[in-house]
Write a structure and sequence with these properties.
There is one protein chain. The protein is of the alpha+beta class and 236 residues long. The protein folds into two domains: 80 residues, Nuclear Transport Factor 2, Chain: A, CATH 3.10.450.520; 116 residues, Glutaredoxin (3-Layer(aba) Sandwich), CATH 3.40.30.10. It is 26% helix and 29% strand. It is built from five helices and 16 strands. Strands 9, 10, 11, 12, 13, 15 and 16 form a seven-stranded mixed β-sheet that branches. Helix 3 packs across helix 5. The two termini are 29 Å apart.
């Protein structure tokens, strides 16, 4: 099994997990306006702050209001908790709070995930996508973070292999970088490290279980396939 670390998708706010994307404020003990009443931005912002302080933080610390603005028919409330600036939403009648907002347009623009058509050396998946090129050279993508121990193992191995190919490939070394996120979203499940070789081979996870020598051999074999076995001294 590949070694990998998954990037968390849940939002953690000052150590308190909020279950669900919508909170009905009437379920908590706080003064409520008439259901038909529309709150001013100042009233809505203060109601949200009171709700957080009274029902979530409960005197352990305190949230302070920064500003409240109208956005898409609801109020966006910026507030501060222990130096961290956060944004929640609240309806104009003050009855519903949204700790997290999902932008559907972002999801509509996400690329279709790659379709696996087989397996290759090093437990890489094979896609039926065309080989992605930059200046006529296959592109190799590495995605990882220094905070990920499996990335720390894989990164120097990948660098060493890709250096042998020189100008025969274009190496996008995205360690601690948010570049090429469209490629990451298409070929990764959200885990790191992720390697994408020419958009033909892809893998989430490191090759450390196989060991450095085997991982280098597997990477070399796959990249040689992309470069038509060039350079000859590497792709024997």
């Amino acid at each position: 099994m590949n070694n990998k670390i998954f990037i968390p998708a849940a939002i953690v706010i000052i150590g308190i997990l909020i279950a669900g994307a919508v909170i009905y404020t009437n379920n908590f003990k706080s003064p409520e306006p008439n259901q038909e009443e529309i709150l001013s931005s100042e009233q809505a912002g203060q109601k949200l702050i009171d709700f957080i302080n009274n029902n979530i933080l409960q005197n352990q610390t305190a949230a302070s209001l920064i500003e409240t603005v109208e956005e898409n028919g609801i109020y966006k409330v910026k507030f501060n908790v222990e130096g961290e600036e956060l944004e929640w939403r609240i309806t104009k009648n003050g009855n519903f709070v949204f700790p997290q907002v999902i932008d559907l347009k972002e999801y509509e623009s996400l690329p279709e995930p790659a379709e696996e058509t087989g397996k290759a050396a090093g437990d890489f998946s094979i896609s039926n996508d065309e080989i992605c090129l930059e200046d006529g050279k296959p592109i190799v993508y590495f995605f990882g973070s220094q905070t990920c121990p499996h990335c720390q193992w894989e990164h120097p191995v990948a660098q060493e292999v890709m250096a042998k190919f020189g100008d025969y490939i274009s190496f996008h070394n995205n360690m601690d970088s948010e570049a090429d996120m469209d490629i990451f979203q298409k070929y990764s499940t959200g885990g790191i490290p992720t390697l994408v070789l020419g958009c033909k081979y892809y893998r989430v996870g490191s090759g450390e279980n196989a060991g450095k020598d085997q991982e280098m051999a597997d990477l070399t074999e796959l990249v040689c396939d992309l470069t038509d076995n060039q350079p000859a001294e590497i792709c024997q």
